[in-house]
Amino acid sequence: MRTLHIALAAALAIALARGQETRQDRGKRVADEALTALGGQAFLHMEDRIVTGRAYSFYSDKISGLSVATIYTRYTVPAPGKLGLRERQVFGRKQDEAFVLFTDQGGWDVNFHGARPMTDDVYNNFKESTERSILYIFRQRLNEKDLSFYWEGSDIFQNEPVQIVDITDATGFTVTVSFNQVTKLPVRQTYRRRNPIYKDFDTEVTVYTKYRTVDGIVWPYDIHRERNGDKVFELYADSVQMNKDLKDDLFTLPGKIKILPKGQ
Question: What is the pTM of this model?
């Protein structure tokens, strides 16, 4: 009985403490629980990643391209205004004939003709979508000054209870993330971005599913993106490898490659 009384008292103390939480405190607690569920220190010390699977791109909600995909990612020390990772995306089975390369200096579309620098719009779209990803925020941005968390309430997503948290950075940009109340993992995020052509706002949504544990890190094998309700990208991973000591040359243009005029 004494043990039961102690357990009940502890549960009551936790409930009372949570009852006194501010929305900021609760938002930060939900985010902390999510980081722990993703692997905690193992997630924070993830150095690189190789994802292989099937990638689909869409136009007007119809498939415009599909391919076997291998995506190599390596995290770097983030500098102000710079992307804190390098990424090589290979679509198809031949690793060296054609690939897309993103670094903190820019992006290139590489094939047998040479390396064509990406337009500013294409590169900035990749940079922004990466920096707004909750998985990138947890890995690279938690130490940013004035990064805030605000609990917005509870809801149901795909028949599962979720807690919703607004994450806002020093510039005032907000990403709204839904965390599964049972697993604590992020399952959906959304944000608004200004359309560079029409100058209105697009709503970007990403859904994360089929989490699996790889070397102590919990990672989503299926990632689905929408813009204004239309599908734009889906990735279904068959394999995810972590911390494979990826080398610089994988994320560097070949020394003698021809640099083509910038994309139009």
Answer: 0.88
